[in-house]
Each structure stands twice: as structure tokens, then as C-alpha cells.
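thought: user wants a sequence for this fold. calling inverse folding tool.
action: design(structure=
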């Protein structure tokens, strides 16, 4: 099965969620952090989510503390920060590693399916974004500095 639907992850509130529950939706999967220069992208991600959620689009946020410890909080602190500071309502998950030996299998798969610049599979910073089509296949990787608004046309083409 060459798609993301075989993976599971814990929601930010601790429930196990199958990626299969997002079957037939366009997804933007993002490794996030609360104390990063790119953290304001949360508002743009939320804007995309609100604009297209009724058409079958979802943003999935995965906090990660692997890059200069920019996500030091626990799940409750992260959830509170995202909601209060940026009004985040899209699904957030428990903190994960996105690279290395303990990387979450979903992120290992995403990185293999959509290598970055010069074919590098490593995820190198917070707010790396992966666009997934309705069949659960990884379509494209976007660098942290790519603003969510710049991805909008790609999202619309998959809806």
C-alpha cells in the first residue's frame, strides 16, 4: 500500500488516530514548533484550513522539538498556545521526532516519498510541509520558508 493510510499517530489529546480516517481528503502535513521564526505560519495554515475544509482539505500539525528545542512544552501547553495565540482548530498531534532513529514512521515515509532540495530525504527544520492527495499519496514537499499561501494553488488543484 503506497499511501499514508497504514500509519497511526496520537492526537494532541492522546487518542490513537489512523491516517485512514483522512481517506479522500487533501492533506497538508506539517511539523510545527511554538518558538520558531516560522511559528506565525500557524495563522496562515488555519486560514487555508478554514477556507478549504468544507471541500475536503485538512491541515495536520505535528509538534517537534528536534530543531534547537523550539517546541519545549508538553501537549497541553502546545494545544493551549496554538488555540489562544493563533486560533488553531485544525487537528494537532502529540509531539513527534521527524528525523533520526526515533522518527515517527509517518515522517520517515513522507521524507522518502518527497525528497527535498538536491534529493535530500532529511527533514531539516520546523514547518516543512507535505502535500498529500485524496488517495493518500505524497505529492510534494515544501520548505519551511514556503508560506502556506504559496501552496494554495497546489491545494486547489487536488480538491
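)
observation: tool returned 159 residues.
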Amino acid at each position: 500500500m503506497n499511501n499514508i493510510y497504514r500509519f497511526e499517530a496520537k492526537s494532541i489529546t492522546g487518542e490513537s488516530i489512523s491516517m485512514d480516517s483522512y481517506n479522500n481528503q487533501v492533506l497538508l502535513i506539517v511539523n510545527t514548533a511554538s518558538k520558531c521564526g516560522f511559528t506565525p505560519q500557524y495563522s496562515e495554515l488555519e486560514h487555508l484550513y478554514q477556507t478549504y475544509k468544507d471541500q475536503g482539505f485538512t491541515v495536520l500539525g505535528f509538534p517537534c522539538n528536534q530543531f534547537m528545542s523550539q517546541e519545549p512544552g508538553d501537549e497541553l501547553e502546545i494545544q493551549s498556545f496554538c488555540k489562544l495565540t493563533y486560533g488553531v482548530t485544525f487537528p494537532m498531534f502529540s509531539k513527534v521526532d521527524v528525523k533520526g532513529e526515533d522518527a515517527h514512521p509517518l515522517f520517515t515515509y513522507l521524507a522518502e516519498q518527497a525528497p527535498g532540495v538536491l534529493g535530500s530525504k532529511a527533514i531539516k527544520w520546523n514547518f516543512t510541509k507535505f502535500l498529500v492527495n485524496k488517495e493518500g499519496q505524497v505529492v510534494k514537499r515544501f520548505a519551511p520558508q514556503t508560506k502556506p499561501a504559496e501552496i494554495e494553488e497546489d491545494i486547489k488543484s487536488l480538491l
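thought: summarizing for user.
answer: Here is the designed sequence. The chain has a mean pLDDT of 95.
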